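Here's a chain:
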Amino acid sequence: MDKIDKNLTEAIIPYVEENCSVSKDKADKAFAGLSMGGYTTVSEALKSPDQFGYYGIFTPNFGCLDIMDAATEKELAKLKDADGFYEVSGIADDGLGKQDRYKTIFGIRRYLTDHGANLAFDIKDGAHDWGLWRDALTTFAKDHLWKMEKTS
């Protein structure tokens, strides 16, 4: 995960900020991932909490609990600084194989809520597949990101 974090923070984000018209404010940025990308999302929330305001964790794999167990209290304390987390899993999610998926799903939820994170949690009718992930992304974007302000 260190290589992914380094690539993201030292190459991808600087490149995008230099070459695209984007905000550098973390409140304007989100990071989301599905399956192994859910693991990556949890890792980024712990390792680079100053980069993104919102995190979408879609049907994460079992490794998430390992990185949360290994996180320092300082890292875990920063989870509350994010504008929001959205964690979602499917009722028929078999992406964890023989692992106890509920231990992972509810374990992540416990870590986030125990450390003051603003968490929206959802279990949807679906599996570890694109049908659920499309729905999760739609819900994340529509209901949990960047609340619009009314102007007159």
About this structure: Residues 30 and 54 are 4 Å apart (CA to CA). The mean pLDDT is 86. The two ends are 46 Å apart (CA to CA).
